[in-house]
Amino acid sequence: METSYLHGYVKEYAPKFRSTPTAFHVIFRNMNYNLNGATNQDTNQDTNQDKFYNARIITLLDYCAIERTREEIQQHIGINNRGYLRENILKPLLNEGKLHMTIPDKPNSKYQKYVTVKNK
Description:
By secondary structure, this protein is of the alpha+beta class. The chain has a domain at about 40-115. The protein has helices at about 40-65, 70-75, 80-95; strands at about 15-20, 25, 100, 115. A hairpin with a 4-residue loop joins strand 1 (about 15-20) and strand 2 (about 25). The protein is elongated and about 75 Å long. The termini are far apart. The model has no long low-confidence stretch (mean pLDDT about 80).
């Protein structure tokens, strides 16, 4: 009888059995685990999310070539949560020097706009 194995199977990953008078233990190794601690699914998902995030940032920076309000930015890139936009998109771009505020002395002004910093 031929035994079929999973893709990536190696003998080191074979199930291990152990029993005591009161218990029975089986250890199954994760066949998808790699040395970095992430599964292929995790790695692919992270890569896809990074690509989506980067595309969204490029779109935002292009859009902000002229001054834009937070509401305009939020609507343009399709983010409904104002706090998420501020903490995860705007603040990092401001800190990296990719965006700047038109009224930096009053960051909470209702007239505040954002514009892309042009590379020299």
